[in-house]
Amino acid sequence: MNRKAAAIAAVMAVTALAGCSRSESEPVTTAPPIETVVITEETTVTTTETTTETTTETESPETEPTVTTTEEGPLVQLPDLDSYVRSNSDTAGWINVPGTFINNAVVQCDNNDYYLNHNFDGGYSEAGWIFADYRGVVNDFSNKQCDNIILYGHNQANGTMFGTLQYYKVTHQNTSRFDFYLEHPTFEFSNLYHQYTYKIVAVFVLETLESQVRDGKLFDYQNYIIFGKDSYTYEEWIEQIMSRTEIDTGVDVQKGDKFLTLSTCSNEFDNSRFIVVGRRVREGEDPNVDTSLATLNTDAIEPDWNYIYS
Fold first, then answer.
1. What DSSP string runs through the chain?
2. What global pTM score does this model have?
3. Are residues 187 and 295 in the same domain?
4. Could you tell me if 197 and 60 lie in one domain?
């Protein structure tokens, strides 16, 4: 009887020990937006009872890695734009080009026609308003935005909208505004959630009608919004803008960069356009531009003035 009682007591002791060996992890508190998933190890103790002896068997726990997943935090609207969004839900951001009169809210709707002749408040206006191409994703996380945001604005004689974008205009015949670029090599654009700086990489005048080019092949810049693999590619985009820019700014570009194109009417001929292209400052990059690297591009492809005027 003493041996049997001793065996039972031993089993009860081991069973109690097994129950205590299972421990719960303390809650892990993490500050948003980073969510951490912790996988804890669990040890199981198995006891086996016989009539003559007690055996304790412990399974070796398998070690599993801690899995950490990181999610981007929520998009938080910039306080400076709150009143504009309340006034017009089409508000998409703000454009500021230092040295010009361009310092305006930007809108975006489901087409590229409405704001050609409507102002910010929705009233009819021949001056229209500065708007983003409706096909481009402007307000989302950076990696979900389109490759090239295009903003359109009328070239108003009184300097409103994009009327002073021409301060950057340089041609082979008139290079006097090169100095303006040297003093203002960047501009700012804020979407609803973040302010970005763009370094100017190209400025040029462009034809928009097939009848204005000898071979009928246009650079349809307005369709380079999402770079494709087979058409409207990044490589084509860079080749086109760099071969046309009147200023070699010395600013580098690379695949994966984000661009913003400012487009307005020009006055050289009917349906001409003046284009300024900026490359977004990369994360951790110095936003300043070494303008000592900038030169006039004497080989820039310009519209065929003689063909157009004939």
1. -HHHHHHHHHHHHHHHHHHHH--PPPPPP--TTEEEE-PPP---EEEEE-SS-EEEEEPPPPP-PPEEEE-PPPP---GGGHHHHHH-TTEEEEEE-TTSS-EEEEE--SSSSGGGSB-TTS-B-TT---EE-TTS--SS-GGGS-SEEEEE--B-TTS-BTTTGGGG---SS--TTHHHHHH--EEEEE-SS-EEEEEEEEEEEE--SGGGSTT-----GGG-SS--SSSS-HHHHHHHHHHH-SEE------TT--EEEEEEE-SSSTT-EEEEEEEEPPTT------GGG-EE-TT-----HHHHH-
2. 0.77
3. yes
4. no
Position 10 pLDDT exceeds 80 = no
Q: How many structural domains compose the chain?
A: 2
Query: pLDDT tier at 72 (50, 70, 90 boundaries)?
Result: low
* Residues 93 and 61 reside in one and the same domain: no
Q: What is the CATH number of the domain that holds 142?
A: 2.40.260.10
**Do 155 and 252 reside in the same domain of the chain?**
yes
> Would you say residue 159 has pLDDT above 80?
yes
| Residue 108 belongs to domain spanning | 79-309
